[in-house]
Model the fold of this input.
Amino acid sequence: MNDPHPEHPGELSCQPLDGTSRSERLPDLASLPHFDEEELSQQPIERASTIPASWYTSPEILQLERKILFSDFWQLAAHDRQIPRAGDVHHFEAAGNPLMLLRDGEGVVRAFYNVCSLRGVPQFNRVDLFDKKDFGLVPVERQDWQGLHFVRLNGDGPDKPGLEELLEGVSNRIAPISLEDYNYYDSHRYVIDCNWKVYVDNFLEGYHIPIVHPELARLLDYRNYVTENARWHSLQHSPFQKGENLYRSTDGKAWYYFFFPISCSISCPTGCRPTWCVPSRPGRPKWPFTTSTATWSRRI
Done:
């Protein structure tokens, strides 16, 4: 199997045969930063404050996030057209685990941990009492929506939304657009030198647009910029200003969706650009994370 972490050539990915992942091992509670009831409660906006600074730097917090956020909730993996043919494979990472999407000979897309149980031992079929069917890749839960493939490592337990609940109302809101009608164009990966929550904080507010994105501010009718919150996702949207624009659209609109906990999507009249975060491994300096983006262009 290909190693999806070329920046760590000396590291091996260990996947127990019982299907549990290393992300399921919780940190010692005594080593976690202090949590008090006030910090964990949701305050009215007039009294709200940012989370403690230690939550952005603690390796124990990152380990906890991998268990209760990145393993337990749905994450965007790929568009269907990134693996169009039988035998096509897409490698990615979730909760510190190397994963893969594979289109099998019957055209069905399946998800697995990208770890060989045998470590590639040659001629292992000569060993007595060995059946290779007992040592296949460990499967991962996968579902699709409008041509997008989502995965979840651990779906057991209460208060964990199904994919339909996570995306509730989105299909009706974006109609007549359907992402199944989009083509895959390209992908990029960026290593950003900050904690992943800083990136998400930035995505979830539009106050910075006139200052940081002047060209975007000239495109959007910022006076009609609206933020809406659902149970497991949020939407920011704005119509375009009247007049000519680079999309040549007279009634265009920008859509900015965030799906809990780390998937984002930016849509415009000609395409869609999803983004998802892959937090760094514990011990990496300065706590960078990798953000992966893809561009899907609307078919004409």
